[in-house]
Amino acid sequence: MILTPGASIAGKRVTRSYGLVYGNTIRARHLGKDILAGLKNLVGGEISEYTKLMAEAREQSLARMKESAASHGANAIINLTFSTSYIMGNASEILAYGEAVVVEDA
User: Fold this and answer.
1) Which of 40, 79, 89, 103 could be a cystine partner for 12, CB 3.0 to 4.6 Å?
2) What is the pTM of this model?
């Protein structure tokens, strides 16, 4: 599956569009990780526990979006975008969305 944030793929042409596809996940923080993050906040630097959590969420959202596109028969997703939103005090959503298409060599 080809993924691109652009509207086109070099050397390919879109022959069919299936429209919008998306994948999302909502992840909650872990109390133990919150404590470690709070301590890290005192001294500064990257909060690697949250970085890992968000990376896993992005990958899961991408996988779900690709599944949706493949179920329609698409072999590419163009105009790929990520969005995040705050759900509640300890949970965030990651949403990946784009246009499912079939591309062929130009």
Assistant:
1) 103
2) 0.82
d(Cα 66, Cα 74) in Å, to the nearest integer?
9
- CATH 3.30.110.70 correct for 2-105: yes
Q: Give the number of other Cβ atoms within 10 Å of residue 13's Cβ.
A: 12
pLDDT digits (tens, 9 = 90+) for 54-98: 899 999 999 999 999 999 999 999 999 999 988 777 788 999 999
Write out the two tokens for 23: 């994948």
Q: Classify each residue of 59-84 as buried b or exposed e, where b means 16 or more C-beta atoms within 10 Å of its C-beta.
A: ebbbebbbebbeeeebbbbbebeeee
* Strand arrangement of the beta sheet that strand 2-3 belongs to: 2-3, 76-88, 91-105, 12-28
Question: What is the pLDDT at residue 68?
Answer: 98
